[in-house]
Amino acid sequence: MDNSNIVDQLYHNNQNGLKELYKIYYKPLLYFVMQYVKEKQTAEDIVAETFVKVWEYRHKFLAIEPLRSFLYVTSKNLTLNQLKKASFKYENIDVNSLENEILSDSNILDKIVKTELLKSIFEEVQKLPEKQQQIIRLTFIEEKSIEEICALLKMSESAVYTNRSRAIASLKKMIGKNPILEFLITL
C-alpha cells in the first residue's frame, strides 16, 4: 500500500491504514523514543499512545508528510511528558536538561534524520538473503562478536565474514542506487 492510500484509508476510518502506518513507523519511532527513554517497555507504551493519537486525529491528515511530522512531534511530546512524570519518581533525573535536548531543533532534526535513514537501510536489509540479514542484524543491531554469531548461526568464522562482506557490498550498491539514501548518509 502506498502512502496516499494509507492517508486515504485513515481519513475514511479504515483501520487498515493505521495498520500499514504502524508497520512502517513502529520500529523507527521506537528507536527515536529509545534515544531518550532507556526503558523499552516505556518506549513501547509511548509509541503505542502515538498511534492512538493518530487515530484520534485521522481526519486532519490529507498527505503523508504532515502525518509523518505528527508522528515524530507527538512521540517527542509524549516522551517529554513521561520524563516529567519520571522525575517525580527518580530525583536524579535532570528533566530540564533532557527537555532542552529534545526541544533543541537541530538535535531533534538530527535524530529524526538518523531514524529515517535507519528505517530506509532496514528496508534495504530486508531485501538481502536470509543469512545475510541475520548476520547484519546480529553484527550491527545486537552488536554480537564473530564468535557469538558463529555459535548462534552454527557457521564457521569464514562463512560469517563472507556473508557479512557480501551483505555490506550489496547494501553499498543499493544505497548508491537510491539518491535519497546517499544524500542522507552524507549529512
TrEMBL record:
Keywords, sorted A to Z: Sigma factor, Transcription, Transcription regulation
Presence of keyword Transcription: yes
InterPro entries: RNA_pol_sigma-70-like, RNA_pol_sigma-70_dom, RNA_pol_sigma70_r2, RNA_pol_sigma70_r4_t2, RNA_pol_sigma_r2, RNA_pol_sigma_r3/r4-like, WH-like_DNA-bd_sf
Gene3D superfamilies assigned to the protein according to its UniProt record, in alphabetical order: 1.10.1740.10, Winged helix-like DNA-binding domain superfamily/Winged helix DNA-binding domain (1.10.10.10)
Sequence ranges assigned to domain RNA polymerase sigma factor 70 region 4 type in this UniProt record: 123-170
RNA polymerase sigma-70 region domain span: 21-87
Pfam families, A to Z: Sigma70_r2, Sigma70_r4_2
Family listed: Belongs to the sigma-70 factor family. ECF subfamily.
The protein, known as: Sigma-70 family RNA polymerase sigma factor
